[in-house]
Write a structure and sequence with these properties.
Blueprint lengths: L2 H4 L3 H17 L9 H28 L2 E10 L2 E9 L1 H24 L6 H20 L3 H19 L6 H32 L4 H10 L4 H18 L7 H5 L5 H21 L8 H22 L5 H21 L3 H29 L15 H14 L6 H13 L4 H27 L14 H15 L1 H6 L13 H20 L2 H5 L5 H11 L4 H46 L7 H23 L1
Antiparallel strand pairs: 1-2
C-alpha cells in the first residue's frame, strides 16, 4: 500500500489538530497578536487534508479500492481497531468535505473579520471537519456512530456561537435535543445489531445479512432504529425543525451544515442500505418520510421571508429525494444528487452570506436592487440556482433526469414527487432572485458595495466548480458524459418542470405575495406554509405537553408520597428514640439481659424458619 494511503488515518486528525492549535487564542492565553494566527493554522491544516485526500484518490483511481486497518487499543482479549474504506465514493465525499471546509474558512476570514471570538470559531470548524472526515472514511458502524455524536456536539457549539443572544441559545438547544432523539434510537439498533451479527464492520454486516433470519418485529425495529439517526442528521420530517433554527448561527457554519454535514448523515444511511432489506417497514417509512420532506420542505421554503430559512428548507427537500433513492436501492442516484446538491448549496449560502454581510439584513422585504451593485454575488447566486434546479447541462439536471428515468416505469408517484420538488425549488429561487437582486432598492440596499476578496475568491472559485459539476460527476458515472444517457421523455419532463417553476417565479406579483391576503382561504394557506404546517405548535401541544405533564406528575408523586413516606419514617424514628431514652437505667445487668434475650429471639426465629 503506497505511503499516502497508509497515512489516511491522519486526515481526520488534521481537523482535530487545528482545533487544538486554535485553543490558546480561543482561550485568550495569547492576546498580543489577535486571533488571526488560529485561522491561518486551521487553513493550512485543511489545505494539507485536501492535498492528502487528492493523492489517495488518485491512487485509488489507479489501483482500486483499499482497506486500512489501524490498531487503536488492546488490553487482554480486547482488541479495538480503526478501519477505513478507501473507495472512490468515500474519497470523493472526503474531498467534498475538506474542500467545502477550506472554502468556508477562507470565506469566514472576510465574513467574521471583526468578530472578537474568531479563534473559537476556527477551533469549532476544525472539530467539525475532523468528525466529518472520520464519518465518510469509517468502515465500522460503531466508529461512525461515535463520530456522528461528535457532529451533534459540534453543531450545538456552532449554532450557539453567539451565546449572548437568547434566541441563539434556544436554537442550539433544540438542534442538539432533536438530533439526540435520532442518535439514541440509532444506538439501540447498533447494540442489537452487534449482538446478532457479532461485528459492526460494514463488510461483516453485508455478509451477515445474506444469512440473517430475524422475526418480523425485531427486523422492523432494527430497520427503524438504523434510519432514525440519519433522519435527524439530514433534517427529515419529523426531525427537520432544527435545521431552520440552526440558521441563527454564523453563515460560514451554515455553508458547511447545508452542504457537507447533511451529506455525511446520508452517507451513513447509504452504507446501511443493504441492511434495510431485512425490514420492508423501514423502506416504506423512508419512502413516506422522503416524499413528505421533499414536497413539504419545498412548499414551506416558498413562504419564508427570511433569506437563510428560505434556502435551508430546500436542503430538507433535496435530502428527501436522496432518501427516496436509498429506499429504492439506487445508491448511484443518491450519491450523484448528494454531490451536485452539496456543491450548489454551498455556493448558494456563500452568496446569501455576502448579501447579509453587506446589508446586515436577511429579511426579504427589506432587500432589493443588489444586481447592479454586487455583480460577483449576483453571478454566484445565479450559478447556484441553476445548479440546484433541473437546467441543462448542470449537475442536478442529470440527477433529476436519471431519477425520472429510473422511477417512472415502476414508481410514477415518486417521479411526480421529483418533478414537483424541482418545480417548487425553481419557483422559490426565482422569487428570491427577483426580490433580492432585481426589486426596487430599499433603505438598507441603496449603498451596498461588493464583498472583499476574501469572500469573493472562494465564491467565484466554487461557481466555476459548479459550472464544471457534470465533468466532476462523470467520474462517478461515465454515462453522464453523453446526453443520450437520458431518453427524450425524461429530458422533456425535467426541463418542463424547471421551466414551469421559472415562469411561475417570474409571473407572481411580489408585493401581493408578501402581504397577507384578505381572502381568508388564501391567508390560511399562507400562514400554514409560513409556519411550517404548524409543526412546532403540534409538537408543543402533543409530545412536549405529554412530557411536561408526566414530569409534573412524577414531581408531585415525589413530593407528596416519597417525601411524605420518608418524613413519616424519620418522625417515627425520632419519636421512638424519645421513648427509648427513658429506658436507659445505667444498670449493667439490664443491658446484658437485653442482649441475651435478643440473641435467643434471633436463634429461635432461625430455627423456626429452618423447620
Amino acid at each position: 500500500m503506497p505511503l499516502p494511503s497508509q497515512l489516511a488515518w491522519l486526515i481526520p486528525l488534521y481537523g482535530f489538530c487545528g482545533m487544538v492549535l486554535a485553543l490558546p487564542w480561543a482561550s485568550v492565553w495569547i492576546k498580543r497578536n489577535g486571533p488571526r494566527p488560529a485561522a491561518y493554522l486551521n487553513l493550512l491544516l485543511t489545505l494539507v487534508a485536501v492535498l492528502h485526500g487528492s493523492l489517495i484518490l488518485r491512487e485509488v483511481l489507479a489501483h482500486g479500492p483499499q482497506h486500512l486497518d489501524v490498531p487503536w487499543f488492546q488490553a487482554a482479549d480486547l482488541n479495538l481497531r480503526i478501519g477505513m474504506d478507501l473507495s472512490v465514493t468515500n474519497l470523493a465525499a472526503l474531498e467534498l468535505v475538506t474542500v467545502m471546509s477550506l472554502a468556508c474558512q477562507v470565506f469566514a476570514l472576510g465574513y467574521l473579520d471583526k468578530e472578537w471570538s474568531l479563534a473559537r470559531f476556527y477551533a469549532l470548524v476544525g472539530f467539525f471537519e475532523g468528525a466529518m472526515a472520520g464519518v465518510v472514511l469509517s468502515s465500522n458502524l460503531f466508529m461512525s456512530y461515535f463520530l456522528l455524536e461528535m457532529l451533534t456536539l459540534s453543531t450545538y457549539l456552532l449554532v450557539g456561537f453567539w451565546y449572548a443572544q437568547p434566541l441563539v441559545v434556544t436554537a442550539a438547544r433544540d438542534a442538539f435535543l432533536t438530533k439526540r432523539v435520532g442518535d439514541v434510537l440509532l444506538l439501540m439498533a447498533l447494540v442489537a445489531l452487534s449482538a446478532w451479527a457479532g461485528s459492526l464492520e460494514f463488510q461483516d454486516l453485508y455478509r451477515w445479512i445474506d444469512t440473517a433470519q430475524l422475526a418480523p418485529l425485531p427486523a422492523a425495529l432494527l430497520g427503524l432504529g438504523l434510519i432514525a439517526g440519519p433522519m435527524g442528521k439530514c433534517a427529515q420530517f419529523p426531525m427537520h425543525l432544527w435545521l431552520d433554527e440552526a440558521m441563527e448561527g454564523p453563515n460560514p457554519a451554515s455553508i458547511l451544515r447545508n452542504s457537507a454535514v447533511v451529506t455525511c448523515g446520508a452517507l451513513v444511511l447509504l452504507k446501511l442500505m443493504p441492511l434495510l432489506r431485512l425490514s420492508p417497514l423501514a423502506i416504506d417509512v423512508l419512502l413516506v418520510v422522503g416524499s413528505i420532506s421533499a414536497i413539504g420542505g419545498a412548499l414551506v421554503a416558498i413562504a419564508q421571508v427570511d433569506l437563510k430559512r428560505a434556502c435551508s428548507y430546500s436542503t430538507t427537500s433535496y435530502l428527501g429525494l436522496v432518501f427516496l433513492a436509498i429506499a429504492l436501492q439506487q445508491p448511484l442516484l443518491a450519491l450523484l444528487l448528494l454531490f451536485a446538491h452539496g456543491l450548489a448549496k454551498a455556493l448558494l449560502f456563500m452568496s446569501v452570506g455576502s448579501v447579509i454581510a453587506t446589508t446586515n439584513c436577511q429579511n426579504l422585504t427589506e432587500l432589493g436592487g443588489l444586481a447592479s451593485r454586487m455583480p460577483a454575488t449576483t453571478t454566484a447566486f445565479l450559478v447556484a440556482a441553476a445548479g440546484l434546479t433541473g437546467l441543462l447541462p448542470l449537475g442536478c439536471f442529470w440527477c433529476f433526469g436519471l431519477m425520472v428515468e429510473t422511477f417512472l416505469p415502476e414508481h410514477p408517484l415518486l417521479t411526480a414527487v421529483v418533478l414537483l420538488t424541482n418545480a417548487l425549488t425553481a419557483f422559490n429561487l426565482v422569487r428570491l432572485f427577483r426580490q433580492v437582486f432585481l426589486a426596487k432598492p430599499h433603505a438598507k440596499t441603496r449603498r451596498t458595495p461588493e464583498v472583499t476578496w476574501l469572500m469573493a475568491l472562494p465564491m467565484v472559485s466554487l461557481a466555476v466548480v459548479v459550472l464544471l459539476s457534470p465533468l466532476v460527476l462523470s467520474r462517478l458515472d461515465p454515462a453522464l458524459l453523453h446526453l443520450r444517457a437520458l431518453s427524450s421523455g425524461s429530458t422533456l419532463l425535467v426541463l418542463g418542470s424547471s421551466l414551469a417553476g421559472l415562469l411561475a417565479g417570474v409571473v407572481v406579483q411580489l408585493d401581493e405575495f408578501w402581504s397577507r391576503s384578505l381572502f381568508r382561504p388564501l391567508r390560511l394557506l399562507q400562514d400554514l406554509l409560513a409556519y411550517d404546517f404548524y409543526t412546532e405548535r403540534i409538537y408543543k401541544g402533543t409530545i412536549v405537553a405529554f412530557v411536561a405533564g408526566l414530569a409534573r406528575l412524577i414531581s408531585s408523586v415525589d413530593r407528596v408520597f416519597v417525601n411524605g413516606l420518608v418524613n413519616r419514617i424519620g418522625s417515627a424514628s425520632l419519636a421512638s428514640a424519645e421513648t427509648l431514652k427513658f429506658s436507659v437505667s445505667g444498670q449493667m445487668q439490664t443491658y446484658v439481659f437485653t442482649v441475651v434475650a435478643a440473641i435467643l429471639l434471633l436463634l429461635g426465629s432461625l430455627v423456626w424458619l429452618k423447620a
